[in-house]
Design brief:
Shape: globular
CATH topology of the largest domain: Elongation Factor Tu (Ef-tu), domain 3
Radius of gyration: 20 Å
Number of helices: 1
CATH class of the largest domain: Mainly Beta
Number of domains: 2
Distance between the termini: 26 Å
Strand content: over 45%
Strand order of the largest sheet: 2-3-6-5-4-7
CATH architecture of the largest domain: Beta Barrel
Order of helices and strands: EEEEEEEEEEEHEEE
Structural class: mainly beta
Number of strands: 14
């Protein structure tokens, strides 16, 4: 049987640096997952992109939140929001905008590792228990470590350094060569440099994830 292994070669990692142009909403389908119809072309969007939704009348449950694009129906100008069950949401009445996050690729990346979080354990043992009993608590998405060739003029590495200084939570997108993506929020915990005799200048970033990782 042929392997379904995905080569890591060709993967890209990007960091959110700005907001793109807002696109007006013309309909919201209360489906699972939720589907949003846009007024203008969706040609500027890709699977795995992060979008912010605001100013909807009716389906206010979507307002002020960011989502990941899971599917795109270009002909119908529809995007599907990953992991959003809208079956119990209020019906859309009017208005609303979808604003994509502008992502800047971090170049010269050599390796990445992480998504190493684990759920906490909650001890529910009681006097009737015959052995220790536990239930899973909140999931911790963990960390992502990134190794790269140092390139001081790279916009992505400049954005990493700025994020480390500010401590601001940023959106990140890891895209694999087969088109699958992992989108997550993180702050840059550290961004260090190293070098030595007969070595190139290296940089390392440690990203502390906040909230869930969305695979699409």
């Amino acid at each position: 049987m042929p392997s379904n292994a995905i080569s890591a070669q060709g993967s890209t990692l990007s960091i959110g640096t700005a907001s793109g142009s807002a696109n007006n909403i013309t309909a919201v389908s209360l489906t699972n997952p939720c589907r949003v119809t846009l007024q203008s072309s969706v040609s500027g969007l890709s699977v795995g992109d992060v979008v912010a939704i605001a100013d909807i009348t009716g389906t206010t449950q979507l307002n002020g939140r960011t989502f990941v694009v899971e599917y795109i129906e270009s002909a119908n100008k529809i995007i599907t929001l990953a992991g959003v069950d809208a079956l119990a949401y209020t019906a859309w009445s009017s208005g609303g905008t979808v604003t994509p996050t502008t992502l800047t690729e971090i170049t010269e990346v050599q390796s990445f590792s992480g998504f190493d979080g684990a759920s906490s354990e909650i001890d529910v043992t009681n006097l009737s228990s015959t052995a220790k009993e536990f239930v899973a608590g909140l999931a911790d998405s963990g960390n992502v470590s990134v190794e790269m060739n140092g390139y001081l003029d790279d916009p992505g590495q400049i954005a990493l350094a700025a994020a480390q200084t500010s401590g601001a939570l940023k959106k990140f997108k890891l895209e694999l060569p087969d088109g699958h993506t992992a989108t997550f929020s993180a702050f840059v915990k550290s961004f260090s440099a190293s070098g030595g005799v007969d070595q190139t200048f290296k940089r390392s970033a440690s990203l502390r994830l906040s909230g869930p990782v969305t695979w699409a």
